[in-house]
């Protein structure tokens, strides 16, 4: 893994190791064991000495946009609709799930829009990026991880009860996919894209 220094490289190496095999709850576990280091808060415009080409940068950004941003913008609203349907059918369905998914939708939309309007255009051209902006994105990733923990709790680890309807089973399958995708989405940005820009 590329990094801007030995300490940072060691930390990111531990994170990368902990993410193998990737599971949906690993992100907030890692956040608990590996707190931010002072060197992670450098408020400068930075670029990795091992420069990424515009072609490589554009390909990586496009992968994130197509595989994660577009998919999550479509799937989270669909999960909200399905969760409402399940709540209407099952009095014992978790009442807090719809509000949680709605918060996730709002936060994810705002976060992804910031990346698309700010960081990604510069990254696509392999231009230097602000370490402050990247740190804000990392902090928001931590917020997404907290939502994943709540999602685990409310869905009983994405496991429907034995009496669950088809819709409830589909809902749990959908929340599990969302969690898996979001962890990989965050990992790709935190551990692959951002380090290529020394951030």
TrEMBL record:
Gene Ontology MF terms: metal ion binding
Pfam families on file: Hemerythrin
Protein origin, superkingdom: Bacteria
One GO CC term on file: cytoplasm
Statement: the UniProt record of this protein carries the keyword Ribosomal protein: no
Boundaries of every Hemerythrin-like domain copy: 64-196
InterPro entries assigned: Hemerythrin-like (IPR012312), RIC_family (IPR019903)
Keywords carried by this UniProt record: Cytoplasm, Iron, Metal-binding
Segment forming the signal sequence: none
Localisation: Cytoplasm
Protein name, UniProt field: Hemerythrin-like domain-containing protein
Naturally occurring in which organism (per UniProt): Rhodopila globiformis
């Amino acid at each position: 893994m590329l990094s801007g220094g030995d300490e940072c490289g060691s930390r990111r190496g531990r994170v990368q190791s902990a993410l193998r095999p990737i599971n949906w709850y690993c992100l907030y576990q890692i956040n608990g064991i590996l707190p931010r280091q002072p060197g992670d808060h450098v408020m400068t415009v930075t670029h990795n000495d091992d420069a990424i080409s515009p072609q490589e940068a554009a390909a990586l950004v496009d992968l994130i946009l197509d595989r994660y941003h577009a998919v999550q913008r479509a799937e989270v609203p669909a999960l909200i609709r399905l969760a409402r349907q399940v709540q209407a059918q099952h009095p014992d369905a978790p009442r807090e799930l719809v509000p949680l998914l709605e918060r996730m939708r709002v936060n994810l939309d705002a976060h992804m829009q910031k990346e698309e309007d700010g960081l990604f255009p510069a990254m696509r051209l392999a231009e230097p990026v602000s370490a402050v902006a990247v740190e804000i994105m990392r902090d928001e990733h931590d917020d997404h991880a907290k939502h994943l923990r709540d999602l685990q709790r409310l869905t009983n680890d994405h496991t429907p009860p034995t009496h669950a309807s088809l819709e409830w089973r589909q809902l749990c399958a959908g929340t599990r996919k969302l969690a898996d995708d979001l962890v990989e989405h965050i990992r790709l940005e935190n551990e692959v894209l951002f380090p290529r820009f020394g951030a």
